[in-house]
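Reposting from the mailing list since nobody answered there.

I have sequence plus structure tokens for a pair of proteins and want to know whether others read the tokens the same way I do. The first protein:
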Amino acid sequence: MKQINKIVPIYAIIPLLSGLLYNCIVYWGSNILCSNLPHYDFTMAFDRKVPFIPEFIIFYFLAYVFWIVNYILIGRGGKEKLYRFVTADLLSRTVCLVFFVLMPTTNIRPELQGDSIWIELVRGLYKADQPTNLFPSIHCLVSWFCVIGIKDREDIPKWYKYFSLIFAALICISTQTLKQHYIIDLIGGIALAEITFRLSNHYEWYRHVQCFFERIGDGVKSIIIQRRKICEEK
């Protein structure tokens, strides 16, 4: 536990993992609920002009590593900042769920030609991820959270803050050049991150979230202590 605490505070583990679980429930659950409903295509003239660039798949996939690193950094910023962030994170996914269910979206992906490594990676992405739940873009939403979640942290170097901004921008661009999302999805994702983050930092909603997770944490600690006692007695 001491080794884990050096990487991410123990109090941050359950809230961050719960956010990941809730994200999966929202994304995959809404896909199941809306599988037979009509889906809307918000393609605009701008979207048709954006070129398909399969090489940007590298940024799309590296996004997952980027998210893990920055969410851990956010978790190390102290309890209040963590729970304010988690509150915004959970609130944003709830808003996503409403949009995914009430306004299911889709798009038309390009036909993939060739057998280069980049095309094969995009082909694998298309097979694994259906063109649904596009608005707002969770890829852009989470990437922007990674930027604003550390922007006011004095303990994080400026160079890494700039790197996060640039890398988040590349991830957002990748959603466009891979035809995974359209421009309205990108704008919606960033706007949702900004709105929920500001709401969470303005109001005291985080206290309820903190209380909830601390109760869960206390319960987990009690179970661990009981098991240790049983093991020691044996």
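The second protein, same order (residues first, tokens after):
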Amino acid sequence: MKRRSVIPVMALITAAILLFFFLNILLGSVSIPARSVLNIMLGTGNEDIIWQNIIFKSRIPQALTAIVAGAGLSVSGLIMQTVFRNPLAGPSVLGICSGASLGVAFVVLLSGSIGGMALSRMGMAGELAMTIGAVAGALAVMALIVYVSQRVKGNVTLLIIGVMIGYIANAIIGVLKFFSVEEDIRAFVVWGLGSFARVSGDQMVLFVCTMAVILPFSALLAKTLNLMLLGDAYSRNLGLDIKRARLFTISYSGILIAIVTAYCGPISFLGLAVPHLCRSLFRTNDHRILTPACILVGALFALTCNLIARMPGFEGALPVNSITALVGAPIVISVLFRKRQNDTSE
């Protein structure tokens, strides 16, 4: 796609984000008239206090969480696919999501067995403990990956080690489940389904502000990622320190994954699907275009999945992971088929 054609497409995607943001606030299991939603958001009129609580304490936090989580996972997936030059790489490829799950497993599954009280009964204190456990587990695995990356030269070897770390974490989680009480296992399974509704109040403000500070730094990696696409030998000849670049890009991606997983749970498929969709949409591998594109498309994708999960007629919400897979898998398949047809015609 020509550079002059990029801006109109970006503007169109931004407009779609605003539209779906409003739809996320308007639609849900509780029907609220559009005029009342506008009055509540603008602070005019005298609307039902229950509707105001639904808008400000549930729907707006969910929509904002979906935007920043979708953007963060999409950028992380783009970085992973570029660093490992593997189209199937994604946010979970290095075991960081598994590390977050292991941290939550230690907090949740051991609380009933050792403390005698299920964490799911502790309310906000339990949610905070799960978030802290997820951050600690994700950062611990990320630190291990960074340590290994300094001693392993090949990306494939590092990729395999990351996958093995994920298997080890899942094995430990299985052992913890075996010795845990049923209520704690259920709480852990629900967390593993992923949700944008878990973040609210001060947690939502901290999450959104943290991601708003971290995400813009992805623009600084565009040149490095473009060089890494050329291969190690060629990029080294152009002056790129491969070891340092890999350390920085993996660390940055790992931080994004750790934060999103800690607050929203392991959201699958989003980080894998969006980079493919952006490459197909903009027809480029230039990360100066792909990085902001992934931020916008990832936010739109997450808003769409969150809206489907909370469609009118459902009580509560469907698991976000189920929606991301159902929506994302056909997109990736169609993109790959279209690419295959284009390669064949050429």
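Reply #1 (J.P.):
I read it the same way you do. The mean pLDDT is 81.
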